[in-house]
Amino acid sequence: xxxxxxxxxxxxxxxxxxxxxxxxxxxxxxxxxxxxxxxxxxxxxxxxxxxxxxxxxxxxxxxxxxxxxxxxxxxxxxxxxxxxxxxxxxxxxxxxxxxxxxxxxxxxxxxxxxxxxxxxxxxxxxxxxxxxxxxxxxxxxxxxxxxxxxxxxxxxxxxxxxxxxxxxxxxxxxxxxxxxxxxxxxxxxxxxxxxxxxxxxxxxxxxxxxxxxxxxxxxxxxxxxxxxxxxxxxxxxxxxxxxxxxxxxxxxxxxxxxxxxxxxxxxxxxxx
Length: 272
Prior knowledge:
This protein has 14 helices and two strands. Strands 1-2 form a two-stranded parallel sheet. By secondary structure, the protein is mostly helical. The longest helix has 24 residues.
């Protein structure tokens, strides 16, 4: 079994496809906002935030050095296209995320803030979870976002250089009359991006000392892009890229039951 899993360790060409696809959707959202009436900005805000979240999921493969076997190429592509444009340090997030893997379920887990926040106290109904997430669209998440981003502040010379270049790019866009694009980009990041992010967080470790093992339908996949509902498998074999999670589940010798997103939500509603 482990021998067959070892064949799944390198990402396929689908990573490039989804990278281009996500940016194409973002470009369409900008075009919609630029040419449509005022209310198209609301649609664009949600769409851009959703695709920013999807890009971060792709970047997660680069964090684990799974996108490309050349580590330098892997890190630069992941940094430029998945993290730096939102002013997130790639190297900082790698340190944060690897610590999460090493310390899952322990006090040292840097993601413990999700369980300590009152927002994630249980029990919670599906409606309560949805309403709290939707409040993020009007800025409810901004303070928590800023607190979380302290962990992702650039600390390496590479991160500082890359993010500085993007800051210059954003300033240039404002100077040349495209400030509306910068406003829409970061407006989406501080609202809808974190709404999608927090909905996904519920599906991973909330309500359990370990990781939920899920199967998602079409709606669940909209909120958990790029196979992220296979989070249990990811923690079991973090060296396997996201486009191979389905195969990984089939290969794993694990009798832990797979539950639907609805059944997971029922756990949250019934957990005192």
